[in-house]
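Model it.
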Amino acid sequence: MTNNPAILLYDGTCGFCDGAVQFVLRVDRRGEMRFAALDSDFGAAVLQRHPELAGVDSVVYVENPESADEHVSVRSEAALRVARYLGGPWQALGAAARVIPAPVRDGLYDRFAAIRYRVFGRVDSCALPAPEVRARFVA
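Modeled.
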């Protein structure tokens, strides 16, 4: 296990985001990635340490969390980092997507994000994780 595994911050009230987290939990062969809602205490602390993320409502991939070399990625770059972490066909798909320029990828990401609640719904709060994966969620 990695000493300081990456943490994926996500919109805990978004139906699509919850489904994406459940997907990552299913296919994560290493079982190391951790998760936190953007509006959790941990998520708020990350956003405070990175003022450039003010107002972000996107997925945030946090590498080396709470360390001097903490690095955050957002939007399409965060999704591509998750794909690389997952390996196998997901890594290959992410590598293929990298040929698309970042502004175009982010534009597509933003268009999808703008309709995610209409298409996938919104919940009042984060769902309680299953007992077998609960330790992978940061409050």
